[in-house]
Amino acid sequence: MTVPGESPRPSRRSIHEEGCIAAHALDILGERWTFLVMRELMFGPKRFGLIRAGLPGISASVLTQRLEGLEASGIVQRVLLPKPAEVQVYALTDVGLAARPVIEALCRWGVVMPGHDPTKFISPTSLMFSMMVMVDADAARGLDLRAGFDLGRESFQGALVDGRWEVEPGPAEGDLVFAGSPNALAPVIYGPRRLADWEGSEAVRFSGDPVLGQRFIDLFSLRRG
């Protein structure tokens, strides 16, 4: 469908040659890396280099192709940041953001499937996204706190809201602050060790009330079943 006054978008080649709407969605999103490119943009716009940093297995040429395809489909748009930055970034459109429940469902489905290896590369966005999905909503309801995450090239701040863990890019500030690489912090959030066991670790740092910090990380688990 073309909106009056807009140029028609070029039709995409059908991969599956089916009239099924699921097949149509996969024609748009089913290419390798596409969902992960969208994941990296779920919390806000990013420059090309920062997107690629979150996807170390992708080449620059393939990332360019995926971004161009997503842009042609109306899922991604290029935006020029205002002064003083004045740099081009990529951002999800409303159509792209509407795919968030799909990626959340993939996380919930994937966590019950055998073979997951959490020691492989984890991007800052993927850690934050997994925490949004894996929070224990019942246990979190009624707990009011803010937590910041300094993950190197990216930092985030989040808050517990009505049992949900809501995150946005920003300074790592809050009642609790965690610092370290995503791969170093993932076992702190999801692993069996107590928060106090990580005291003095060179890989991770924590500031805030340790009792509240333990209560916070107890809200997250890679539940299987």
Can you characterise this structure?
The chain has 225 residues and is an alpha+beta fold. It folds into 2 domains: 21-98, Arc Repressor Mutant, subunit A (Orthogonal Bundle); 104-217, 2-Layer Sandwich (Nonspecific Lipid-transfer Protein, Chain A). Helix content is 37%, strand content 16%. The protein has 10 helices and 7 strands. The chain has helices at 21-29, 34-40, 48-53, 60-72, 94-97, 100-111, 124-134, 137-140, 182-190, 210-217; strands at 76-80, 88-92, 146-150, 155-161, 164-169, 176-180, 204-207. The protein has a 5-stranded mixed beta sheet with strand order 5-4-3-6-7, covered by helices on one side. Strands 1-2 form a two-stranded antiparallel ribbon. A hairpin with a 4-residue loop joins strand 3 (146-150) and strand 4 (155-161). The protein is globular and about 55 Å long.
Form type: globular
Largest β-sheet summary: 5 strands, mixed
Order of helices and strands: HHHHEEHHHHEEEEHEH
Class by helix and strand content?
alpha+beta
Structure summary, number of beta strands: 7
Distance between the termini: 41 Å
Radius of gyration: 19 Å
Low-confidence parts lasting 5 or more residues at pLDDT below 50? 1-11
